[in-house]
């Protein structure tokens, strides 16, 4: 029964995207290596550059697009679900859909803490909701003492409505944390962090379902 449930979860995660995007998506999926399949969360990785990996995490949960965006925008709550985040704030709101965000990450001893300055924007269309994240101009926030600045940030959140009334959430990310950490350790921590984040995401997201986003409707 457990194996059957896991098989059904995989089908629900992959099939809705496959029927929308056809052979291009099927070919793209071949590049990903399954790292973890438990707790209704799929974690994949694939080689990126400089010996590092790109991470993809997926889960299915009942949520509106607006509730998910409210969770992301609640910077005071970000440390409660995004792994290793100790502080996050919006430096500048460029438009209703665009922000410049500063985030600080804690790191276990003896590694140094990290921070990053990113530009994010979102869109909603007939396919669903997508939020993209990339490096922002670094002069938006001077480098801070005790923190190593993360560069080469590229990430996205994608949400797609399923026929069963639930939503497929997919997160893909690559970042070079800099410093002297070996690649094997960076890659291992990235996979672990994605899993921890999605576990906490599933705990936090239901709290926002009864709230209404001012500019994002399903």
Short description:
This protein is an alpha+beta fold.
Could you explain the architecture of this structure?
The chain is an alpha+beta fold and 218 residues long. 27% of the residues lie in helices and 39% in strands. A hairpin with a 5-residue loop joins strand 2 and strand 3.
Give the SSE layout.
Elements: H1 2-29, E1 33-38, E2 41-47, E3 53-61, H2 65-73, E4 85-95, E5 98-105, E6 113-125, E7 128-135, E8 147-149, E9 151-161, E10 167-176, H3 183-204
Parallel strand pairs: 6-8
Antiparallel strand pairs: 1-2, 2-3, 3-10, 4-5, 5-6, 6-7, 7-9, 9-10
Organism: Vibrio caribbeanicus ATCC BAA-2122
Domain START: 32-210
Keywords: Signal
Mean pLDDT: 88
> What's the order of the H and E elements?
HEEEHEEEEEEEH
CATH architecture: 2-Layer Sandwich
Beta strand %: 35-45%
What is the top-level CATH class? Alpha Beta
Keywords: Signal
Domain START: 32-210
Pfam family, one: START
GO molecular function, one term: lipid binding
